[in-house]
Write a structure and sequence with these properties.
The chain is built from 13 helices and 9 strands. With about 350 residues, it is an alpha/beta fold. The strands form 3 sheets. A 5-stranded mixed sheet has the order 3-2-1-4-5, sandwiched between helices. A two-stranded antiparallel ribbon has the order 6-7. Helix 9 crosses helix 11 and helix 11 packs across helix 12.
């Protein structure tokens, strides 16, 4: 029995495994526990092991690659069309094995432990920021019910809120004032945790040459640089710069039929968090870049002069920044501000 491709449907403890030969015929169909699967794969002759790129896949992928196998990870949405008839774990594993055999299939690069660690830091920070936003909105709602309105913006609200709490007034009852003070302490604790994570990102960017090159690009700060390296590494999985922009969902969605092309809004595919960072970075850099005498500045002024909506220009700029980041990572070149491109 010579297994050519081993399709693995990942579970928490139980894994469905389907092995196919060189002709695509199923020659193995089993359900295994985690350690049993690891021991089984270590004894197998070298073959292709296919899995969906989900939680735990990169850890298993590194173990299987260390055993000499070729690991192919795929997005679940690309595997779904190959699942036949009724959906169950065995059918999923069979569909994974068949999808991995297709020559046009797009695969996900195996992430290193360092990349996963950086992604974890970003996810924790994102959760803390969301908690802080929820807490601030609760502060606003409590005070709005008592006729106190504050200007928009976290910094303005924080300053005005502290002045309200410090001053003597009868807006808040003693019980609510005590509750508000407890919530304010919770807010400060979240600020400290977020700042600590920000400090970790700064330290990471200082000691990584690829991240340092990325931070030299306008609109690409420490958060963007660390998130980019964690998500795409050296960008070797993208053959062209436009492929990265498409993967991030920063390009128009196509609806073309009968030779008639129709472009809609951006696709919003891929990594939502990374796309959000790039758009925010482009928004922050828009004003300065549009006044600069670089190729990017000329390009931005040309679009704005044509009456293109500002938000559309910002998304287009985010796409261009992503493409510049691809060049910096893929070619290992520094960013040259005077030209707006990566050069020797």
């Amino acid at each position: 029995m010579q297994i050519s491709i081993l399709g693995v449907d990942i579970g928490t403890n139980s894994f469905s495994v389907v092995g196919v030969d060189g002709q695509g015929a199923v020659i193995l169909r089993r359900t295994m526990r985690r350690q049993t699967l690891i021991d089984f794969v270590e004894k197998l002759p070298r073959c292709v092991i296919a899995m969906e790129a989900c939680s735990g896949a990169h850890h298993l992928g590194r173990l299987f690659a260390a055993a000499g196998h070729e690991v192919r990870l795929m997005s679940p949405e690309y595997v779904r069309p190959y699942v036949k008839a009724q959906k169950n774990d065995d059918r999923d594993a069979e569909g994974i094995a068949e999808a991995a055999s297709r020559p046009t299939m797009r695969f996900v690069d195996l992430k290193s432990q360092e990349q996963l660690d950086i992604q974890t830091l970003h996810r924790v920070r994102s959760r803390l920021v969301a908690e802080r936003t929820t807490l601030i909105n609760q502060h606003r709602a409590i005070l709005l019910e008592r006729g106190v309105v504050f200007p928009a913006g976290r910094v303005k609200f924080e300053s005005a809120f502290d002045e309200l709490i410090a001053g003597g007034n009868d807006v808040l009852s003693p019980h609510i004032r005590s509750l508000i003070l407890e919530l304010r302490d919770e807010w400060r604790m979240l600020d400290k945790k977020i700042e600590a994570l920000n400090g970790e990102f700064v330290s990471l960017a200082k000691h990584n040459s690829a991240m340092r090159r990325l931070t030299s690009i306008p609109g690409i700060g420490v958060l963007n640089a660390t998130a980019l390296v964690a998500a795409i590494g050296d960008a070797s999985s993208f053959q062209h710069a436009r492929d990265l922009g498409a993967w991030l969902g920063l390009v128009p969605r196509q609806f073309t039929t009968g030779g008639k092309a129709r472009l809609l809004g951006i696709t919003k595919r891929g990594n939502t968090y990374l796309r959000t960072l790039l758009v925010h970075g482009a928004r922050a850099a828009m004003h300065t870049l549009s006044k600069s005498d670089t190729s990017i500045g000329q390009w931005l002024r040309a679009m704005l002069s044509r009456g293109v909506a500002r938000n559309v220009v910002i998304v287009a700029l985010a796409n261009k920044l992503a493409r510049i980041a691809w060049a910096v990572l893929r070619k290992g070149l520094p960013y040259e501000r005077s030209f707006g491109v990566a050069v020797n």
